[in-house]
Amino acid sequence: VMGALESRGVLRRMSDMLEVLMKRMDILARLENSTDFHKGDEARFPLDRFQPAAGLMERIQAIAQNVSDIAIKVDQILRNSLLNGKGMDGRRDQCEVPRDPKYPDCAGKVEWMRARWTSDPCYAFFGVDGTECSFLIYLSEVEWFCPPLPWRNRTVAAPSPPPPRAQAAFRRDLARLLELIGTGKESLSFMKKRIRHLAQQWLRAARRLEQKLAGRQRDQKHILIHIGFLTEESGDVFSPRVLKGGPLGEMVQWADILAALFMLGHSLRVTVSLKELQSHLGVPPGRGNCPLTSPLHFDLIYTDYHGLQQMKQHMGLSFKKYRCRVRVIDTFGTEPAYNHEEYATLRGYRTNWGYWNLQPAQFMTMFPHTPDNSFMGFVSEELNQTERQLIKANKVSSMAVVYGKEASIWKGKEKFLAILNKYMEIHGTVYYETQRPPEVPAFVKNHGLLPQHEFQQLLRKAKLFIGFGFPYEGPAPLEAIANGCVFLQARFNPPHSSLNHEFFRGKPTSREATGTAVFQVSSQHPYAEEFIGKPHVWTVDYNNSEEFEAAIKTIMRTQVDPYLPYEYTCEGMLERIHAYIQHQDFCTTSSLPPSPKTKSPAMQSPPSPLALSPNSTHLVWSPGAGGAPQAWPPVASLQAWLSEPQHTCTETCRQHGLVCEPTFFRFLNKEEVFLQLSIACDSTESEMNHLYPAVAQGVRECYLQKEPLLFSCAGSNAKYRRLCPCRDFRQGQVALCRDCL
């Protein structure tokens, strides 16, 4: 009998060899059966190059069977040698898999452990040694698939009350945050410069919010910030391009998130490496198949899609347990239809980035694309009255700055530039190393890549900031408008979406004019077009030279003041993040909406707390409804409206001066709500569909939502009129209702 270590190594090699062979067999089988290789002359390659001979398949199967037999024998040798060598007590020699209906997966998990326990060193770390007893101990005490073993001495101490939470206090200095961010990457240096530049604005905003809250108690949260796209494992393509004109929008947003969380007084840990992430989480050594070594001590984790993937790969079962604490910074948003794995797969919404089955509000966007996600945002610098007057006095009405630091953005824009050059002096900030980029015409004054404060000085002099269609939805147009520029951009006809434009393909959002659309990409910067508009933002057809030229002439004559939406100020961002931290809870089951029963949900639910409004056009929360739920936003802000066909709930609410609020769908997902709106349902079905609850136009068929994760303000169809939950909102702060702070 070989020693335990040698036996374990042999078993691991045999098992890995079997896995490789089986994978190769599967690939060959798929190639053999693939329709792509049975199209005769249309096939890209001749069939006989790929179709394996029957004899070869038989040999592979025979080898695989031999390896399987050897693995089983080595497993038996290993168990016998361990049992003999360790002198374990009698009970450990005689463990049997319990048959407990409360643990239906136990037997299957034990069988898996027998064959694969050497596949990841983390199992040995938790004491698995190849014996049946060690499997059961692991599966009952580390994971939770088997019942506890009665002979295990597991004295469970009575839970002691948790110590009182430290209270969050607004901070008066950002120096400690700069230390937490660390060094070693140009991206980190950029973020720290931005935080230092805006430090006084953050401090003033924190003082104002502190006064608004009037001494309200706030628990200090332990927060991990893991910026996954800056890790080496994700490629970190951003850091090397910081000084070469690369995109900075994500780093702008992360810098502002860090500053806001810190100013609110929470305890932060910041990581930009996988190794640090594993250390902070308590990941056991191995390949990521085991749970964490101890309960997660972070209340919240802010990360991005790259970080989310890294957490899933290394947290084992703990990822599912703790994913409710995650907040995903997601530039363009994730619509519910793409987030729900089963639904996305069945309905064709599956993408590289979706199907996480999170609550849609856990995704936090740069702009308020959809109320289904939480609007995180970023900040632009606020001007005081003296600065505003100085800018107005020094504006040069014939000066334009082009939005685009990369030379490729200028390619093919000669026609627009020639027209613009007839009226204005054109400035660019295109990166170059030694030679002027050939894409930039000679009549353009190119300053090269400018530091942020110098770029801001350029904007303060310019009259016009002009975009050429890319990049989409960045922070620069808001900064230009805040510095007194008019932003001129192209209208996209048809609007760009995942169906017609490569940039959006693969993203978990369609941004279509129909289907799941909320905030369609009808221009380079839809937020500026929809929420700001003229005179600060002009959106025109660049293919129409007359319209383009007329817009330039009008802009030169138009006087505009610097303008910054409140939600993009430091104070506005602090308000939002404070409200989210205090009120958003995706871990308690009571905060999640229940799905209706399959049969006759109305018969099993209490009377509707909604009442018809005085003008009988919509429903409101009844003043007489006792025991209003502890919902956030407060239910008093709820209004329920019925959409027109082909209208999203976002559009429907906006038409009434309101905002769609997806957390209120649970109050509308009942048959009696249709009756209250004078809709008699001939039939009522409960199904998975991101358009439900809704009524089919003309046939009086009513549909309720079966899957709460699919409640969505997005989406429309000519067949349906949707039940839409709307709410009011704070002036200049679309993310929060009037009483949400």
Automatic annotation (TrEMBL):
InterPro entries: GT18_cat, MGAT5_Glycosyltransferase. This is alpha-1,6-mannosyl-glycoprotein 6-beta-N-acetylglucosaminyltransferase. It catalyses: N(4)-{beta-D-GlcNAc-(1->2)-[beta-D-GlcNAc-(1->4)]-alpha-D-Man-(1->3)-[beta-D-GlcNAc-(1->2)-alpha-D-Man-(1->6)]-beta-D-Man-(1->4)-beta-D-GlcNAc-(1->4)-beta-D-GlcNAc}-L-asparaginyl-[protein] + UDP-N-acetyl-alpha-D-glucosamine = N(4)-{beta-D-GlcNAc-(1->2)-[beta-D-GlcNAc-(1->4)]-alpha-D-Man-(1->3)-[beta-D-GlcNAc-(1->2)-[beta-D-GlcNAc-(1->6)]-alpha-D-Man-(1->6)]-beta-D-Man-(1->4)-beta-D-GlcNAc-(1->4)-beta-D-GlcNAc}-L-asparaginyl-[protein] + UDP + H(+). One of its GO terms (molecular function) is alpha-1,6-mannosylglycoprotein 6-beta-N-acetylglucosaminyltransferase activity. It is found in: Golgi apparatus membrane. It comes from the Eukaryota. The gene is Mgat5b. Residues 590-611 are annotated as: Disordered. Keywords: Glycoprotein, Glycosyltransferase, Golgi apparatus, Membrane, Signal-anchor, Transferase, Transmembrane, Transmembrane helix. It is a single-pass type II membrane protein. Pathway: Protein modification; protein glycosylation. The keyword Iron does not apply.
